[in-house]
Amino acid sequence: MKNKKITVIGSINMDLVTSTNRVPILGETVMGESFHTIPGGKGANQAVAAARLGADVTMIGCVGQDLFGQDLLKHLKAQGVNVEHVEPVTDSSTGIAAITISNGENHIIVIPGANYHVTPVFVASFEDVIAASDILLLQLEIPLESVEKAVELASKHRVKVVLNPAPIQPLPKALLEKVDYLTPNEYEQQLLFDSIEWTEEERQEMLRKCIITRGSRGITFYQDEKVEIPSYKVDVVDTTGAGDSFNGGFAYAICQGASLKEACQFASAVAALSVTKLGAQGGMPTMQEVQDFLRERNEIV
Ligand code: RIB
After folding, report:
1. How much is the pLDDT for 148?
2. How far away, in angstroms, is 233 Cα from ligand 1 center?
3. Active-site pick, 15, 56, 238, 244
4. In the chain, what are the domains?
5. pLDDT at residue 104 in the model
6. What span, in angstroms and rounded, lies between the C-alpha atoms of 148 and 181?
7. pLDDT less than 70: residues of the chain
8. For ligand 1, is residue 15 a contact (CB within 6 Å)?
9. Which residue's CA is the closest to the ligand 1 atom numbered 8?
């Protein structure tokens, strides 16, 4: 069977990760536990999650012409992601994320840098790549107009779109209407629904596109009725990138023809494994690792 094509248009960051037993309050200094520089960025994380599972993944994005940019390009390539359309730009540094981890939970501040060079014109220059994709996977760490352009082109070529609305911001109704799957967490879903005026019919239609991730409380989606998928219990080291792992796994499974329920169950296993190691991409599993994990739980894929 021909491997389905997933295209990711999004951010590529270097994560500057500090682990601490306690997060300082304003004005306070605490001594931390460790510091690591780890590849990240919601776009790149989702691309790597899908590539580790065996998908044919193309990344469209920008890095700076600096050491972080060079490292991230090498890293993405080594993970099997096609980086032919990742452009090093001269007048911005590579995106970074300052991340603090404490007791498995995180705080993140993103400085987008080169990610904001992913302009609508840049996106439009890859219309043929988008048209040749089976799924387009998007997040909100590049300019919103670029996400809108990407969705417009995908819709023109009847390519399915998965939009992970993170980090959340108010989104135009017209954009949401063109997306096939929306993958907000509960907070993001609430904000999206509250920030737009919907008729009851539109609201129901939008709800049917939503796959709502609820962390350790599982996944909810609505078809004819509300469906709840419980999450897998694992020992959590770092939840950074759990949502990205879910999105990469979800896009992969949908491409393979899985039902919504199957795709959510599979992606939930991918996300569960991802949080057992440090770093957004550290614990992202291969297909073999997902199969072993599910077999141990008597859930064969
Ligand atoms: O979703 C996790 C990601 O958010 C991190 O890798 C960080 O780079 C930010 O983009």
Report:
1. 98
2. 23
3. 244
4. 5-12+42-94+113-296 (3.40.1190.20)
5. 80
6. 15
7. 1-2, 300-301
8. yes
9. 41
240 pocket-lining for ligand 1 (C-beta < 6 Å): yes
Strands in 219-222's sheet, in edge-to-edge order, are 211-213, 219-222, 226-229
Name the one residue in this structure whose structure tokens are 């691309």.
47
Q: What is the pLDDT of residues 100-129, one digit of tens each?
A: 999 888 999 999 999 999 999 999 999 999
User: Which tokens sit at 3?
Assistant: 């491997």
Report pLDDT digits (tens) over 216-252. Answer: 999 999 988 999 999 999 999 999 999 999 999 999 9
